Amino acid sequence: METLVLAHKGWVSYEAAKVAPLLAQMGKETDMARRKMIYEGKAKILYEGPEPGTFVQYFKDDATAYNAEKKAVIEGKGVLNNRLSEFFMTGLQGIGIPTHFIKRLNMREQLIRQVEIVPLEVIVRNIAAGSMAKRMGMEEGTPLPRPIVEFSYKDDSLGDPLVPEEYIIAFGWASQQDLDDIVSMALRVNDYMSGLMHGVGIKLIDFKLEFGRLWDGDFQRLVLADEISPDSCRLWDVETGQRLDKDVFRKDLGSLSDAYTEVARRLGVLPSNVTHVPTKPTPIN
């Protein structure tokens, strides 16, 4: 912005004014690349953060399905998920739900608090779809009588199996109080997300959350962690039923990047006229 002001005054060229922020962003991403990598998952990489107790979370373009049996690189996916996760996490913080999110750093990275991840995926379902519909012999799209919260144990080698609360408590993955708090927060997230999506013509079919323990000395509290994006949600257009989530990739229903861009446009995360999401800064000739 400051460089563009200088351009208005004739002190620098408009080409330089446009390129400067992009080059600055490239510098930031290069700096992050020098940091120590802590962990690499299927869709994100964690690096050490600039301050103790922080990580930098990098969003990759990798797409996986069926426990990583199907893989592809989708240009722009990481950029979209970074922006959308920032949007959702910031909104949830605004209604009093604690999260690990601190701020977005650039197109692909955000600064987060270091947490001890609870080894559970928390799945909230509003409408029967996916594995639940298959497991229960239900037609996809059948509304559930009320939101249902399920737990799966985070272990790719086991296929992230569903587990009952009795297992969770017996194996020490979480206490009963932890589970009560997790369910309460998950349902609040569902209320917020369902209303938000409905307002832009999208049904929130189901979604996955992860939680972490944030330690302050001997005191710990649970916070929402990982990400919220079309990677972790099942989203259908209200009118047409068009899939706007990772099922587009799972079932070869079209362009995943276009689907995610449509979600971002409807939510106002991207301008309404955007048709292509830049994946890296590109100097202007």
Q: Strand content of the residues, in percent?
A: 25-35%
What is the correct CATH architecture of the domain at 117-255?
A: 2-Layer Sandwich
Helix fraction by DSSP (H/I, runs of at least 4): 25-40%
Total DSSP E strands: 13
Through-space gap between termini: 20 Å
Query: What structural class do you assign from the helix and strand content?
Result: alpha+beta
Taking the sheet with the most strands, its summary is: 6 strands, antiparallel
CATH superfamily (homologous) name of the domain at 117-255: ATP-grasp fold, B domain
- Looking at CATH, which topology of the domain at 117-255 would you report? D-amino Acid Aminotransferase, Chain A, domain 1
Number of helices: 8
Choose one word for the global shape: globular
Rg calc = 20 Å
- Tell me, what is the CATH class of the domain at 117-255? Alpha Beta
